[in-house]
Amino acid sequence: MSDTxxxxxxxxxxxxxxxxxxxxxxxxMMQPYDMEVGAGTFHPATTLRSLGSKPWTAAYVQxxxxxxxxxxxxxxxxxxxxxxxxVLIKPSPPNLQDLYLGSLRAIGIDMALHDIRxxxxxxxxxxxxxxxxxxxxxxxxxxxxxxxxxxxxxxHDCAPVSGELTYGLERLAMYVLGIDHVMxxxxxxxxxxxxxxxxxxxxxTEEEYSRWNFDVANTDVLLRHFEEAEAECQAILAQxxxxxxxxxxxxxxxxxxxxxxKASHLFNLLDARxxxxxxxxxxYIGRVRALAKQCxxxxxxxxxxxxxx
Amino acid sequence: MPDLLIELxxxxxxxxxxxxxxxxxxARLTEALVEAGLTYAGAAAFSTPRRLALTVQGLTGxxxxxxxxxxxxRVDAPEKAIEGFLRGAGLTREQLEIxxxxxxxxxxxxxxxxxxxxxxxxxxxxxxxxxxxxWPKSMRWGAGSLRWVRPLHSILCILTDEAGEVKVVDLxxxxxxxxxSTEGHRFMGAGRFAVTSFDDYRTKLRRAHxxxxxxxxxxxxxxxxxxxxxxxxxxxxxxxxxxxxxxGLVEWPVVLMGRIDExxxxxxxxxxxxxxxxxxxxxxxxxxxxxxxxxxxxxxxxETADQGATILAGNQKVLAARLSDAKFFWENDLRTVxxxxxxxxxxxxxxxxxxxxLGSQADRIARIAALAREIAPHVGxxxxxxxxxxxxxxxxxxxxxxxxxxxxxxxMGRYYAAAAGLPAEVAAACQEHYSPLGPGDAVPSAxxxxxxxxxxxxxxxxxxxxxDEKPTGSKDPYALRRAALGVDRLVxxxxxxxxxxxxxxxxxxxxxxxxSETASQNKQKLGGINISGGAFQVLxxxxxxxxxxxxxxxxSFLHDRLKVHLKDDGIRHDVIDACLAMEGNDDLTLLVKxxxxxxxxxxxxxxxxxxxxxxxxxxxxxxxxxxxxxEYSYGADVKFAExxxxxxxxxxxxxxxxxxxxALKSEDxxxxxxxxxxxxxxxxxxxxxVQVNAESQVIRRNRLNLLSSIRxxxxxxxxxxxxxx
Lengths: 309, 725
Prior knowledge:
The complex is a heterodimer of chains A (309) and B (725).
Chain A: H1 11-24, E1 28-29, H2 44-47, E2 56-65, E3 81-90, H3 96-106, E4 116-120, E5 123-125, E6 130-139, E7 142-153, E8 156-157, E9 163-168, H4 169-177, H5 198-216, H6 219-237, H7 253-272, H8 278-299
Parallel strand pairs in A: 1-2
Antiparallel strand pairs in A: 2-3, 3-9, 4-6, 5-6, 6-7, 7-8, 7-9
Helix pairs in contact in A: 6-7, 6-8, 7-8
Chain B: E1 3-10, H1 15-35, E2 42-48, E3 51-57, E4 66-74, H2 79-89, E5 97-101, E6 104-113, H3 118-131, E7 152-160, E8 166-168, E9 172-173, E10 176-179, E11 181-183, E12 192-194, H4 198-207, H5 214-231, E13 235-236, H6 240-247, E14 254-259, H7 269-280, E15 283-286, E16 293-300, H8 309-345, E17 353-355, E18 359-360, H9 361-379, H10 383-392, H11 400-404, H12 411-419, H13 424-432, H14 447-466, H15 480-493, H16 500-525, E19 541-542, E20 545-546, H17 549-568, H18 573-580, H19 588-603, H20 605-628, H21 644-665, H22 669-677, H23 680-689, H24 697-717
Parallel strand pairs in B: 7-10
Antiparallel strand pairs in B: 1-3, 1-7, 2-3, 4-6, 5-6, 7-8, 9-10, 11-12, 13-15, 14-16, 15-16, 17-18, 19-20
Helix pairs in contact in B: 1-3, 5-6, 7-8, 8-12, 9-10, 9-14, 9-16, 10-13, 10-14, 12-13, 13-14, 14-15, 14-16, 15-17, 16-17, 18-19, 19-20, 19-22, 20-23, 20-24, 21-22, 21-23, 21-24
């Protein structure tokens, strides 16, 4: 890649270039997970696949929801629904930093003009029982990515270690495109027959979800769903490993993990509704973490988790 | 004498860890080399974001051959013993020497350890040091098992002799082979290059846009930033912590000064400064005429064709986004305060749990307000103001600004109190009641601030004491040691006369009520699960006062923190113990006065000798009392005095006793010590001239009673039996 790459013209072009770049590096181009998650890390292609000894490489866009960050589409930088670009490579290759810098060049960031820095930022996800060491990557003083070497996930030591890259796509794209308000950002090519801005696509949904997240969501229902998801997760994992119908050994780590994801998102919604006190908060996080841990325990017993079939 | 050069090249090392890591590398490796028998002339260590480097000059080329002689068993000793000796020495029987000793023929072994080349020692020790490096946090990467702060990429390790001959040390750490090359700046360097010596390394690094010395990078940043500020008639705000951090974030510092948009200049300077420093690592640049912060300095790691214009524009944009958040919070908070007052801003604290057994923040604030009112008269504060200040001191925790920048708590309270039109004392207390935060932090002296600060800390302490969450070992999650030291320092610094046991007892009562109320609420919430509240306490009596038993326990915790603090001031722990044993030790000001006077006294010649005299008297007396089974406290009678020295001691004690009593009554401890000092000569003379254990029982008893007077009088000042030496 040369530093003279032409500037991208739209949000989607930046995504497409990242896709092309990481595909060229040999990553499996995954698609978003079909459930509500708070970050790309929750995708089983990261959480579960970072466990066990099998090599893995994946890249994908993940729509992410953070109900508390909703601002009715008015704040230039905050959204309750946004996109993350996620790359996970296990074991982390020795040139991961260079690969990452290559991806910035691919989306038009010229290293001869910009100041790229790796600033200490250790990542921890209390709900996933996961942590790693790494940096937030700064471009001219702005955080554009999170760069992490996973050390533990779901309470398990990662061996080998995965390298994880997370790009906050809207923020990164706004910087590259020189846009001040996210809603003004071109979504597709401005020269397209029907040019759309980010606001044309998402302003209305930001309003609708902000209202629902903060004031309307039925907290009794959310609470019940949380408890149901928790119970279902545990019930799935309590099943015998051998399926009585097929006689095969089928540990249902993924269906159980879906319930863990659900519980996590329901907790976020309850949090946005302001019905969780500071002390209760820790308890809820602990309950989700316990689920994540049990799912991780189950996954490492499976074939994909490194167990011999 | 070769020179050694080491560089450990890795991905970006956190700035806060670099200096110590370089120092650890130097200390550990040079120690190991010396331990292995090598010597060296000098060593220096360096760090940049991507490397730790070490140069050791004038290293001996190899360690000396050593000979050790060991005496073994006798020749006729059991076979097992001889075999064991051979194993230990690593020799065969033929290599042993037999010598004639008094007890017979004995085996001797001479163990020769040949010297080893420096390269071999360096390889071995460096490998060990890398594998056991004391990083505060370390990690694994890829499929390996080596741990380092971030992935370690290359090791440069060479020995250069006087002729300039370079030898690469043969070393392989988990597949990383030591070599003679490194690379420069990530973006401005031009690939790997080989080096032949430390000077060559340093010069080539600079050519590759890396300044090796952190100190030089810091100086460059400071100089350049000051110059740029000065050129615009402005002044750089000093911040040595930030300077050190920024110097650890760049290998090639490029200083850029940018403007802060007019729209944000109305924000409190601390808000600008915090926002810029914490999130962006910017220095603040102020206008010396107005004191306003008008510009910022950022330090980039790269030179660009546009002289940093793109970088600066980007930084400015990020800052503007942050400051518009801050401005939004500031304006919103001001509106809240103006509409609802500061107490209105804090109304939400009723829904914030402080601790699930101690109720909400609002409950806690009510207790602090009552306590501040109680303490006010002892610290010279107006009780109404103290109460009012305590009620609003934590309101800013509910402000949007503190929600975003928790480090501004207190300070924002001060601004918002002023905006609400509250008295200046109240506004000051909002900020100052958190102080002192650590042993070095300034202690507030404004009476209202002191009252609230004390009440805040005492409520924290009694609360956690009451629910039995005292610190244990290294665990102190609620920072109770810090709170206790805060109480000590507030009292001692302000020379406050406070009977702490009474204050603590009052506070325990209030906390006790809170606990049982919270427990009954929790009980309702939890549907009948029984949570035991505060148990009924029988109050013990101390110095004739009824006090809470927990208060006595907490007081000794406060004493412990005070001891540590006074030790730093050069007052020995036994001196403090001697004073702690006295009545009224819950008045810390009195305690410290007494301890200071005693410590000063013991440093004098009189003090030292009097102490010896006292100890001698006390020892003789204690032994006699133990032997005779009686207490000699009847008072000696001068009419049985035989010698002049004895009579002189009677006279001296008769003078000293009232003098000491008068001095102590007015808390003049130095005076009391002075009066005791007058006893030194008579006591010394007495012991030189007089035999206590006289043949006449009458005289012996009288002399023992005289010693008892010495003890009695000296113990008025402090419990000298606790002084060591």
